[in-house]
Amino acid sequence: MKALITNRHLISRIVNLAFGKSLSSNGAEFKDVPIPTISDDEILVKVKAVALNPTDFKHIDAISPPSSIVGCDYAGEVTKVGKNAASVWKVGDRVAGAVHGGLYPDRGAFAEYLKTDSDLCWRIPAEIEDTAAATYGVSAVTAMHALNARLGLPWADDDQQNTPRTDPKDRPTILVYAGSTSAGLFTIQLAKAAGYTVVTTASPHSFDLVDKYGADAAFDYRDPSVVDKILANHPNISSAVDCISEGVSTDICGRVLRPNGGKIITLLPGAKSKYPGVESELVMSYTLFGRAFQWLPPVGPKFPALPEDRKALVRFYSSLPRLTATVKPPPVKLEGVGFDAILTGLDKLRAGKVSGAKLVVKMV
Ligand SMILES: NC(=O)c1ccc[n+]([C@@H]2O[C@H](COP(=O)([O-])OP(=O)(O)OC[C@H]3O[C@@H](n4cnc5c(N)ncnc54)[C@H](OP(=O)(O)O)[C@@H]3O)[C@@H](O)[C@H]2O)c1
Protein backbone atom coordinates (compact mmCIF):
# COMPACT_ATOMS: atom_id res chain seq x y z
CA MET A 1 0.00 0.00 0.00
CA LYS A 2 1.00 3.65 -0.37
CA ALA A 3 1.83 5.54 2.85
CA LEU A 4 3.64 8.67 4.03
CA ILE A 5 6.91 7.41 5.56
CA THR A 6 9.43 9.39 7.62
CA ASN A 7 13.11 9.42 6.64
CA ARG A 8 15.00 11.72 9.02
CA HIS A 9 17.91 10.44 11.03
CA LEU A 10 18.64 11.60 14.55
CA ILE A 11 21.04 14.52 13.91
CA SER A 12 18.68 16.19 11.44
CA ARG A 13 15.77 15.79 13.89
CA ILE A 14 17.73 17.27 16.78
CA VAL A 15 18.87 20.22 14.66
CA ASN A 16 15.26 20.91 13.63
CA LEU A 17 14.13 20.65 17.24
CA ALA A 18 16.84 23.06 18.38
CA PHE A 19 15.90 25.64 15.73
CA GLY A 20 12.17 25.14 16.30
CA LYS A 21 11.54 24.59 12.60
CA SER A 22 12.46 22.32 9.74
CA LEU A 23 15.63 23.48 8.01
CA SER A 24 15.23 21.12 5.09
CA SER A 25 12.17 19.66 3.41
CA ASN A 26 11.33 16.07 2.53
CA GLY A 27 11.33 14.63 6.03
CA ALA A 28 8.75 12.17 4.74
CA GLU A 29 7.93 10.66 1.37
CA PHE A 30 5.27 8.44 -0.15
CA LYS A 31 6.42 4.84 -0.40
CA ASP A 32 4.97 1.41 -1.00
CA VAL A 33 4.93 -0.57 2.25
CA PRO A 34 3.18 -3.81 3.31
CA ILE A 35 -0.46 -3.62 4.35
CA PRO A 36 -0.39 -4.00 8.18
CA THR A 37 -1.14 -7.42 9.61
CA ILE A 38 -3.61 -7.39 12.51
CA SER A 39 -3.77 -9.20 15.85
CA ASP A 40 -6.90 -10.88 17.22
CA ASP A 41 -7.78 -7.62 19.03
CA GLU A 42 -7.33 -5.31 16.05
CA ILE A 43 -9.19 -4.26 12.94
CA LEU A 44 -7.86 -3.21 9.54
CA VAL A 45 -9.35 -0.01 8.11
CA LYS A 46 -9.43 1.28 4.53
CA VAL A 47 -8.75 4.99 5.09
CA LYS A 48 -11.33 7.29 3.45
CA ALA A 49 -10.49 10.66 5.06
CA VAL A 50 -7.77 12.04 7.33
CA ALA A 51 -7.57 15.18 9.46
CA LEU A 52 -4.28 17.02 9.88
CA ASN A 53 -2.70 18.03 13.19
CA PRO A 54 0.35 20.13 14.13
CA THR A 55 1.77 16.97 15.69
CA ASP A 56 2.00 15.39 12.20
CA PHE A 57 4.49 17.93 10.86
CA LYS A 58 6.32 18.03 14.22
CA HIS A 59 6.81 14.27 13.94
CA ILE A 60 8.09 14.56 10.37
CA ASP A 61 10.44 17.44 11.25
CA ALA A 62 11.82 16.33 14.60
CA ILE A 63 10.20 13.49 16.48
CA SER A 64 9.75 10.39 14.31
CA PRO A 65 12.38 7.71 13.80
CA PRO A 66 12.94 6.83 10.13
CA SER A 67 10.51 4.40 8.45
CA SER A 68 7.46 5.39 10.53
CA ILE A 69 4.02 5.89 9.01
CA VAL A 70 2.82 9.47 9.69
CA GLY A 71 -0.70 10.58 10.62
CA CYS A 72 -3.13 10.13 13.49
CA ASP A 73 -6.73 11.10 12.64
CA TYR A 74 -8.80 9.03 10.22
CA ALA A 75 -12.21 7.86 9.13
CA GLY A 76 -12.76 4.82 6.97
CA GLU A 77 -14.24 1.40 6.48
CA VAL A 78 -13.44 -1.85 8.27
CA THR A 79 -11.87 -4.39 5.87
CA LYS A 80 -10.61 -7.08 8.27
CA VAL A 81 -11.62 -8.03 11.80
CA GLY A 82 -9.49 -9.79 14.45
CA LYS A 83 -11.08 -12.83 16.09
CA ASN A 84 -11.71 -11.07 19.42
CA ALA A 85 -13.30 -8.05 17.77
CA ALA A 86 -15.89 -9.95 15.73
CA SER A 87 -18.72 -9.34 18.21
CA VAL A 88 -18.34 -5.58 17.75
CA TRP A 89 -17.08 -4.95 14.19
CA LYS A 90 -17.82 -6.46 10.79
CA VAL A 91 -16.36 -5.82 7.35
CA GLY A 92 -17.97 -2.71 5.83
CA ASP A 93 -18.63 -0.87 9.13
CA ARG A 94 -17.75 2.84 9.16
CA VAL A 95 -15.14 3.65 11.79
CA ALA A 96 -13.03 6.64 12.90
CA GLY A 97 -10.48 7.49 15.56
CA ALA A 98 -6.87 8.36 16.20
CA VAL A 99 -3.76 6.19 16.14
CA HIS A 100 -0.22 6.88 17.35
CA GLY A 101 1.15 7.95 13.99
CA GLY A 102 4.81 8.81 13.44
CA LEU A 103 6.30 6.10 15.64
CA TYR A 104 5.69 2.67 14.12
CA PRO A 105 6.50 1.19 10.67
CA ASP A 106 3.05 -0.44 10.52
CA ARG A 107 0.67 1.99 12.28
CA GLY A 108 -0.33 5.43 10.99
CA ALA A 109 -3.24 7.19 9.30
CA PHE A 110 -1.63 8.69 6.18
CA ALA A 111 -1.84 5.40 4.37
CA GLU A 112 -4.26 3.39 2.27
CA TYR A 113 -4.89 1.06 5.23
CA LEU A 114 -4.33 1.33 8.95
CA LYS A 115 -4.64 -1.00 11.89
CA THR A 116 -6.06 -0.06 15.27
CA ASP A 117 -7.07 -1.71 18.53
CA SER A 118 -10.73 -2.54 18.02
CA ASP A 119 -11.82 -0.69 21.19
CA LEU A 120 -9.80 2.49 20.53
CA CYS A 121 -12.03 3.73 17.72
CA TRP A 122 -15.68 4.68 17.28
CA ARG A 123 -18.61 3.82 15.05
CA ILE A 124 -19.53 6.71 12.73
CA PRO A 125 -23.25 7.55 12.90
CA ALA A 126 -24.99 7.48 9.50
CA GLU A 127 -25.58 11.24 9.40
CA ILE A 128 -21.89 12.13 9.84
CA GLU A 129 -19.65 12.31 6.77
CA ASP A 130 -16.18 10.79 6.79
CA THR A 131 -14.55 14.23 6.56
CA ALA A 132 -16.28 15.39 9.76
CA ALA A 133 -15.81 12.04 11.52
CA ALA A 134 -12.04 12.24 10.93
CA THR A 135 -11.82 15.42 13.02
CA TYR A 136 -12.73 13.61 16.28
CA GLY A 137 -9.14 12.42 16.62
CA VAL A 138 -6.19 13.92 18.50
CA SER A 139 -7.93 17.23 19.32
CA ALA A 140 -11.07 15.59 20.68
CA VAL A 141 -9.33 12.93 22.73
CA THR A 142 -6.95 15.52 24.14
CA ALA A 143 -9.91 17.59 25.38
CA MET A 144 -11.29 14.51 27.14
CA HIS A 145 -7.84 13.62 28.48
CA ALA A 146 -7.34 17.09 29.96
CA LEU A 147 -10.82 17.65 31.37
CA ASN A 148 -12.21 14.26 32.36
CA ALA A 149 -9.13 12.08 32.90
CA ARG A 150 -6.89 14.72 34.52
CA LEU A 151 -8.93 17.63 35.93
CA GLY A 152 -11.77 15.31 37.00
CA LEU A 153 -14.65 17.15 35.32
CA PRO A 154 -17.84 15.08 34.90
CA TRP A 155 -17.89 13.05 31.70
CA ALA A 156 -20.19 14.07 28.87
CA ASP A 157 -21.81 10.61 28.96
CA ASP A 158 -22.53 10.82 32.71
CA ASP A 159 -26.15 11.94 32.85
CA GLN A 160 -26.30 11.71 36.66
CA GLN A 161 -23.41 14.06 37.31
CA ASN A 162 -24.41 16.44 34.58
CA THR A 163 -27.62 17.64 36.18
CA PRO A 164 -27.66 21.22 34.94
CA ARG A 165 -26.83 23.73 37.63
CA THR A 166 -29.70 26.12 36.98
CA ASP A 167 -28.18 29.15 38.66
CA PRO A 168 -25.16 30.31 36.59
CA LYS A 169 -23.44 31.63 39.71
CA ASP A 170 -23.28 28.07 41.12
CA ARG A 171 -21.33 26.84 38.11
CA PRO A 172 -17.58 26.45 38.44
CA THR A 173 -15.59 28.36 35.84
CA ILE A 174 -12.72 27.06 33.75
CA LEU A 175 -10.23 28.92 31.56
CA VAL A 176 -9.67 27.42 28.11
CA TYR A 177 -6.63 29.25 26.75
CA ALA A 178 -6.62 29.40 22.92
CA GLY A 179 -10.22 28.30 22.53
CA SER A 180 -10.18 28.66 18.73
CA THR A 181 -7.65 25.86 18.28
CA SER A 182 -9.16 22.50 17.36
CA ALA A 183 -8.22 21.20 20.82
CA GLY A 184 -9.79 24.34 22.31
CA LEU A 185 -13.12 23.97 20.47
CA PHE A 186 -13.51 20.40 21.79
CA THR A 187 -12.40 21.49 25.27
CA ILE A 188 -14.99 24.27 25.36
CA GLN A 189 -17.76 21.84 24.39
CA LEU A 190 -16.78 19.11 26.88
CA ALA A 191 -16.44 21.68 29.68
CA LYS A 192 -19.91 23.02 28.88
CA ALA A 193 -21.27 19.47 28.85
CA ALA A 194 -19.77 19.08 32.35
CA GLY A 195 -21.78 22.09 33.55
CA TYR A 196 -18.94 24.63 33.65
CA THR A 197 -18.88 28.28 32.72
CA VAL A 198 -16.17 28.62 30.06
CA VAL A 199 -13.89 31.62 29.80
CA THR A 200 -11.60 31.49 26.81
CA THR A 201 -8.91 33.47 24.97
CA ALA A 202 -8.69 33.88 21.20
CA SER A 203 -8.00 36.49 18.55
CA PRO A 204 -10.97 38.86 18.14
CA HIS A 205 -11.58 37.37 14.65
CA SER A 206 -12.29 34.07 16.43
CA PHE A 207 -14.74 35.42 19.04
CA ASP A 208 -17.83 34.44 17.00
CA LEU A 209 -16.41 30.96 16.51
CA VAL A 210 -15.75 30.27 20.20
CA ASP A 211 -19.16 31.76 21.04
CA LYS A 212 -20.79 29.32 18.60
CA TYR A 213 -19.05 26.38 20.34
CA GLY A 214 -20.36 27.49 23.75
CA ALA A 215 -17.79 29.83 25.35
CA ASP A 216 -19.42 32.19 27.85
CA ALA A 217 -16.75 34.89 27.53
CA ALA A 218 -13.80 35.46 25.21
CA PHE A 219 -10.75 37.69 25.72
CA ASP A 220 -8.02 38.71 23.29
CA TYR A 221 -4.82 36.90 24.33
CA ARG A 222 -2.70 39.64 22.73
CA ASP A 223 -4.24 42.38 24.94
CA PRO A 224 -1.53 43.28 27.53
CA SER A 225 -4.24 43.59 30.21
CA VAL A 226 -5.92 40.26 29.38
CA VAL A 227 -5.26 38.85 32.88
CA ASP A 228 -6.75 41.89 34.66
CA LYS A 229 -9.78 41.81 32.38
CA ILE A 230 -10.42 38.11 33.02
CA LEU A 231 -9.96 38.49 36.79
CA ALA A 232 -12.23 41.56 36.93
CA ASN A 233 -15.09 39.47 35.49
CA HIS A 234 -14.17 35.96 36.66
CA PRO A 235 -12.19 36.07 39.92
CA ASN A 236 -12.81 32.44 40.99
CA ILE A 237 -11.11 30.34 38.33
CA SER A 238 -9.05 27.44 39.65
CA SER A 239 -8.64 25.22 36.58
CA ALA A 240 -7.32 25.86 33.09
CA VAL A 241 -6.45 24.01 29.92
CA ASP A 242 -3.68 25.73 27.98
CA CYS A 243 -4.40 24.64 24.41
CA ILE A 244 -1.34 26.37 22.96
CA SER A 245 1.31 25.96 25.73
CA GLU A 246 3.78 28.26 23.99
CA GLY A 247 5.20 31.73 24.63
CA VAL A 248 3.32 33.51 27.45
CA SER A 249 0.26 31.24 27.43
CA THR A 250 1.01 29.21 30.57
CA ASP A 251 2.09 32.36 32.41
CA ILE A 252 -1.24 34.03 31.60
CA CYS A 253 -3.10 30.93 32.83
CA GLY A 254 -0.99 30.93 36.01
CA ARG A 255 -1.74 34.59 36.76
CA VAL A 256 -5.48 33.97 36.29
CA LEU A 257 -5.37 31.01 38.71
CA ARG A 258 -2.94 32.56 41.24
CA PRO A 259 -5.59 34.19 43.53
CA ASN A 260 -7.30 30.81 44.15
CA GLY A 261 -4.56 28.29 43.37
CA GLY A 262 -5.44 25.38 41.09
CA LYS A 263 -4.24 23.36 38.13
CA ILE A 264 -3.31 24.03 34.53
CA ILE A 265 -3.21 21.26 31.96
CA THR A 266 -0.55 21.96 29.33
CA LEU A 267 -0.17 20.35 25.91
CA LEU A 268 3.51 20.85 25.09
CA PRO A 269 6.65 19.86 27.01
CA GLY A 270 8.37 22.80 28.71
CA ALA A 271 5.24 24.84 29.51
CA LYS A 272 5.11 25.02 33.33
CA SER A 273 3.45 27.10 36.03
CA LYS A 274 5.85 29.17 38.11
CA TYR A 275 3.27 30.31 40.66
CA PRO A 276 3.04 28.72 44.12
CA GLY A 277 -0.27 26.94 44.58
CA VAL A 278 -0.78 26.65 40.82
CA GLU A 279 0.17 23.19 39.62
CA SER A 280 0.72 22.33 35.97
CA GLU A 281 0.60 18.94 34.29
CA LEU A 282 1.48 17.98 30.72
CA VAL A 283 -0.85 15.61 28.91
CA MET A 284 0.27 13.71 25.83
CA SER A 285 -2.64 12.18 23.98
CA TYR A 286 -0.36 9.29 22.99
CA THR A 287 -0.55 7.84 26.52
CA LEU A 288 -4.25 7.15 25.79
CA PHE A 289 -3.26 4.30 23.45
CA GLY A 290 -2.06 2.18 26.39
CA ARG A 291 1.44 1.41 25.11
CA ALA A 292 4.78 2.57 26.53
CA PHE A 293 6.68 4.79 24.09
CA GLN A 294 9.63 7.10 23.75
CA TRP A 295 9.31 10.63 22.44
CA LEU A 296 12.10 11.58 19.95
CA PRO A 297 13.56 8.06 20.05
CA PRO A 298 16.22 6.99 20.88
CA VAL A 299 17.17 10.00 23.04
CA GLY A 300 13.92 11.57 24.30
CA PRO A 301 11.89 10.99 27.47
CA LYS A 302 10.14 7.66 27.96
CA PHE A 303 6.42 7.40 28.74
CA PRO A 304 5.10 4.29 30.51
CA ALA A 305 1.89 2.50 29.50
CA LEU A 306 -0.96 4.05 31.49
CA PRO A 307 -3.88 1.58 31.65
CA GLU A 308 -6.20 4.20 33.21
CA ASP A 309 -5.60 6.50 30.25
CA ARG A 310 -6.42 3.68 27.85
CA LYS A 311 -9.67 3.03 29.74
CA ALA A 312 -10.53 6.72 29.40
CA LEU A 313 -10.13 6.53 25.61
CA VAL A 314 -12.25 3.37 25.43
CA ARG A 315 -15.00 5.14 27.40
CA PHE A 316 -14.83 8.28 25.27
CA TYR A 317 -14.96 6.52 21.92
CA SER A 318 -17.65 4.06 23.00
CA SER A 319 -19.92 6.94 24.07
CA LEU A 320 -19.08 9.29 21.18
CA PRO A 321 -21.72 7.99 18.71
CA ARG A 322 -24.35 9.21 21.22
CA LEU A 323 -22.62 12.53 21.89
CA THR A 324 -22.12 14.02 18.44
CA ALA A 325 -25.27 16.13 18.77
CA THR A 326 -23.63 18.06 21.62
CA VAL A 327 -19.95 17.61 20.77
CA LYS A 328 -19.68 19.02 17.25
CA PRO A 329 -16.69 18.73 14.94
CA PRO A 330 -14.60 21.86 14.40
CA PRO A 331 -15.28 23.68 11.09
CA VAL A 332 -14.01 21.33 8.38
CA LYS A 333 -11.84 22.72 5.58
CA LEU A 334 -11.29 20.27 2.74
CA GLU A 335 -7.65 20.69 1.70
CA GLY A 336 -8.03 18.36 -1.27
CA VAL A 337 -8.36 14.81 -2.45
CA GLY A 338 -5.46 12.34 -2.47
CA PHE A 339 -2.08 11.97 -0.80
CA ASP A 340 -0.47 15.15 -2.21
CA ALA A 341 -3.04 17.30 -0.39
CA ILE A 342 -1.68 15.97 2.91
CA LEU A 343 1.66 17.61 2.17
CA THR A 344 0.19 20.98 1.12
CA GLY A 345 -2.02 20.95 4.22
CA LEU A 346 0.88 20.16 6.53
CA ASP A 347 2.86 23.04 4.97
CA LYS A 348 -0.02 25.40 5.84
CA LEU A 349 -0.09 24.15 9.43
CA ARG A 350 3.70 24.46 9.65
CA ALA A 351 3.46 28.08 8.46
CA GLY A 352 0.73 28.88 11.03
CA LYS A 353 -1.70 29.69 8.23
CA VAL A 354 -4.67 27.74 9.59
CA SER A 355 -7.10 29.52 11.87
CA GLY A 356 -10.44 28.33 13.18
CA ALA A 357 -10.67 25.24 10.98
CA LYS A 358 -9.55 21.65 10.76
CA LEU A 359 -7.82 20.69 7.51
CA VAL A 360 -9.13 17.43 6.13
CA VAL A 361 -8.08 15.36 3.11
CA LYS A 362 -10.25 12.82 1.31
CA MET A 363 -8.39 9.69 0.27
CA VAL A 364 -9.13 7.99 -3.02
N1 LIG B 1 -0.21 17.18 24.13
C1 LIG B 1 -1.09 16.74 23.26
O1 LIG B 1 -1.50 15.60 23.32
C2 LIG B 1 -1.61 17.67 22.20
C3 LIG B 1 -2.82 17.36 21.58
C4 LIG B 1 -3.34 18.26 20.63
C5 LIG B 1 -2.62 19.40 20.31
N2 LIG B 1 -1.42 19.63 20.92
C6 LIG B 1 -0.68 20.86 20.61
O2 LIG B 1 -1.55 21.94 20.92
C7 LIG B 1 -1.37 22.99 19.98
C8 LIG B 1 -2.72 23.31 19.33
O3 LIG B 1 -3.08 22.23 18.47
P1 LIG B 1 -4.42 22.32 17.60
O4 LIG B 1 -4.41 21.23 16.60
O5 LIG B 1 -5.58 22.42 18.50
O6 LIG B 1 -4.14 23.71 16.89
P2 LIG B 1 -4.81 24.42 15.62
O7 LIG B 1 -6.24 24.06 15.52
O8 LIG B 1 -3.95 24.23 14.44
O9 LIG B 1 -4.67 25.92 16.14
C9 LIG B 1 -4.82 27.03 15.30
C10 LIG B 1 -5.16 28.21 16.18
O10 LIG B 1 -4.10 28.49 17.10
C11 LIG B 1 -4.29 29.79 17.59
N3 LIG B 1 -2.97 30.29 17.97
C12 LIG B 1 -1.85 30.24 17.21
N4 LIG B 1 -0.81 30.77 17.92
C13 LIG B 1 -1.30 31.14 19.13
C14 LIG B 1 -0.74 31.72 20.29
N5 LIG B 1 0.57 32.03 20.36
N6 LIG B 1 -1.52 31.94 21.36
C15 LIG B 1 -2.83 31.59 21.31
N7 LIG B 1 -3.43 31.04 20.24
C16 LIG B 1 -2.67 30.82 19.16
C17 LIG B 1 -4.93 30.57 16.45
O11 LIG B 1 -6.08 31.18 17.00
P3 LIG B 1 -6.58 32.66 16.59
O12 LIG B 1 -6.71 32.64 15.08
O13 LIG B 1 -7.84 32.82 17.33
O14 LIG B 1 -5.46 33.56 17.06
C18 LIG B 1 -5.36 29.49 15.43
O15 LIG B 1 -6.73 29.54 15.12
C19 LIG B 1 -0.29 22.51 18.99
O16 LIG B 1 0.95 22.97 19.43
C20 LIG B 1 -0.36 21.00 19.13
O17 LIG B 1 0.84 20.35 18.77
C21 LIG B 1 -0.90 18.80 21.85
From TrEMBL:
Family designation: Belongs to the zinc-containing alcohol dehydrogenase family.
This protein's UniProt keywords: Oxidoreductase
Subunit structure as annotated in this protein's UniProt entry: Monomer.
Protein name: GroES-like protein
Enoyl reductase (ER) domain location: 27-361
Gene3D superfamilies in alphabetical order: Medium-chain alcohol dehydrogenases, catalytic domain, NAD(P)-binding Rossmann-like Domain
Any one GO molecular function term: oxidoreductase activity, acting on NAD(P)H
Keyword Cell wall biogenesis/degradation: no
Pfam families the UniProt entry points to: ADH_N, ADH_zinc_N
Keyword Electron transport assigned: no
Record-linked InterPro entries: ADH-like_C, ADH-like_N, ER, GroES-like_sf, NAD(P)-bd_dom_sf, Trans-enoyl_RdTase-like
